[in-house]
Amino acid sequence: MATKVIYFTVRESEERAEFRDDFPADDVKDIFRAAAEAGPHDILKLYNCRGNIVNISPKLEPNTPDQPYKLEVVAAHCTGNITLTAQLGFDVGDLESRIQSLEKKIMLEGGETPSVVFDMRNKVEQFREKLENVEHLSWLGLFKDISSTSLHPFWSRKSSHRKSEEHNKRLFDKFLKISNVQITEEVKLYLRKPTFDNWQWEDAEMVVLLQQMFIDLDFTSKFNIELPVLQNFLYEVYKNYNHIPFHNFRHCFCVSQMMYGLSWLVNLSETMGDLDVMIMLTSAICHDLDHPGYNNAYQVNARTELALRYNDISPLENHHCAVAFEILARKHCNIFGNVPPETFKKIREGMIRCILATDMQRHSEILNKFRAMLNEGFDFSNKDHKDVLMMILIKVSDISNEARPMDVSEPWLDCLLKEFFNQSDVEKLEGLPVAPFMDREKVSKPSSQVGFIRYVLLPLFESLGQLFPPLDEHIILPVKEALNYYTDMEGTIRVEQSKKAQAEGEMNCNNEHDEQHPTEVDEDVSS
Length: 527
Prior knowledge:
The protein is mainly alpha-helical.
């Protein structure tokens, strides 16, 4: 097998490396480590000519001397005896001490500590944890040897994405303080509409609104749910949503609120029954529990613990279900503790079915089955028909952001792309396949939405609208308007790109003409 030559610079010195595709990964890394005169614990980062980070591996693409890679030592002796203070230029411990002093002063002079102080302390704690944990370097695009850890997920249950106990306690205290506040009729009605703006509400307030949904649907009395148990359940749910860009507690609330809104818009309690509506609402609340911010494709390709545990079959959705029933297994959180065993069995079966339906790999299968039922005549007394409808309803709720006003939905798109780009960056570093729709170099806001809305959202929403015509004005028309919005945006971007390319082409032609006919310029100037 022929060797390939890699040209690169390190500390402004030109270097070259030769190796074959079948070289061991560690040997290739050692070549670059030696060229950089780096120690075994130093961390290297390799850039291509476009400034993008590439993984140091035998699969590295050959290049030419005029387009060299750039190698940098970005962290030296990170496991050695150099203190964080020496590396950072400031002392994290000193920051912590100053915050503690500030807290004492506030307690002595003013009583209750403002939340901003707690936030400052949490950020310092998270910063310290991040600095002391080498795993975070992958987020920065730094080289990390993953060859010996392929069976372990990039995310772990001890990840810094988890909320701190202090943060959770503050939220629970605030939740309990405001949980007995009487919500106005205006807010109750607003909560039932797809236009509801989640960005105006704090986390503790959203937990109260979830509680209100159970109360307004009369589930607390119909299923004998004790209020303290409901509050404990909602708090545990909140704790088990991670600090990640998109699949977080706020997303949980939005999906639940849309499900709740649909139940009122088309009177699902009457057509399907209270038990099925409660199953769908509870499923919506639990549908992304403990989401790590990396999708099923990553779990499978990286051979994470979740993929191994669930045999590559909907690993995330199976995990969300498992976490939900871990919470419900605790007596003080079991909102279904007072229902008969047969009813609980139906609830468990329904929740598993609904949450597993949110795996987009099953989208066509579920939608085609629903369409066939519509064509033959949907029957609300048919259990199979109702089971499929429940899956359709939670799917609609799960991807319903574009049915909301643009000032509510567009920030969600930013959050989603951030999570996608985070994943694709890691996949590139770990040598894993990257989906084009998640690659920051290939995706724009409009391009990510036009195809998704046209081929996924609209067919799903319009199929549900066949069964429930009132949904047309509430969620289908807004989705069509969103499609027009992003189509226009995409067209504008293409026009601007075309103009830019044309201008650059004309500039290049002029430059070539000037280089080929310098005398003509001189004659013009002299005349």
